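A quick aside before the break. I want you to see a complete sequence-to-structure record at least once, exactly as it would be stored in a machine-readable document. Don't worry about memorizing anything.
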Amino acid sequence: MAEPADAAEVFAPSSGAFLDDPYPAYARLRARGPVHYYGPSDQYLIPRHADVAALLRDRRLGRTYLHRFGHEEFGRAAPPAAHEPFHVLNDHGMLDLEAPAHTRVRRLVAKAFTPRTVERLRPYVEDLADDLVRGLVADGGGDLLARVAEPLPVAVIAEMLGIPEGDREPLRPWSADICGMYELNPGEETAARAVRASLEFSAYLRELIAKRRARPGDDLLTDLIAAHEEGDRLSEQELVSTCVLLLNAGHEATVNATVNGWYALFRHPGQLAALRAEPERLLPTAVEELLRHDTPLQLFERWVLDDIEVGGTPIPRGSEVALLFGSANRDPAAFRDPDALDLARPREANPHISFSAGIHYCVGAPLARVELAASLRALLRRAPHLRLAAEPRRKPNFVIRGLEELLVEV
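That is the input. The structure line, written in tokens, reads:
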């Protein structure tokens, strides 16, 4: 059996150069082997597309291990007591549940989060995107992140859930603070912010849930409260955690996919020109290609619940694997000319995993596609000469990849 390669000299997520462009390092990892041990985070890195796609569907791995093992039994320390508010919130959401709890919660959520719900939102999404872009154009440009990429998905998921407009300002800061815990080896300052945001976000949602129980509305939160099957309903904690997950995942990915995508377009002027020439023909495949080319979620973690082998390399129970989405989406074994941006790449030739796969496939993927297409369409139509005004800086994050700002001129 093969030994895992050592990733430390290639994989450098705290390096500015790596954060700017991790893709050459990913190519080196894929060439070296299927499994790499990374000591600083005590994880096995999986860089190849076929392995990542298979492990996302492998039930010998899980987002949690607590449905089968205690912390000590699994060889892991329990989280610090001070972090409990974050873990209570996080551990009751679909993303960190496994069967049978995940099956039950996702089935109930699916009764409320339907394709009809997304289609009902489409006019609102398109109108809002158009309004935001009109404002950007009227000012001659500005920060595309702050003016379009960020407010659009925040408003859409808040509208969907029924969060009043006057209550929406803290949603993005709460989300950013909670999502800081998904980075590799978050420090105590990050944890303290996440705990505070978890407490404040949860308290707000409990008040809103009480209002909706007393006076139902025409919104997803009311539908989630009412969703039931064979007498089963979501508990209040499951409701709170589900709403936070939908809000966080529903805009973190879309915000970063939008700015990553436009930055890629600016660096590939030929592709941008083609998109401007034939927007309606290329938009469907362009959305998928931009998600693949520089995915906003670079890494997804899973616990190894039973001994496994990947490419002949054993990974024992109790380990944690880090599935490198960014690397998998650039694997030449799965994509023709993977480092090229090809907005006409056919859907059948673009098996990207930016929305994950298996039981944890993103429930909000259809809405994210609607939002990305709406903002692209509005910008192409109202700002046909949109251009980069200044070279952007990357956020100092690895797992959730994005930009600090994206300054543009019209």
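Two observations worth writing down. The mean pLDDT is 94. The domain at 5-409 is CATH 1.10.630.10 (Cytochrome p450). We'll return to this after the break.
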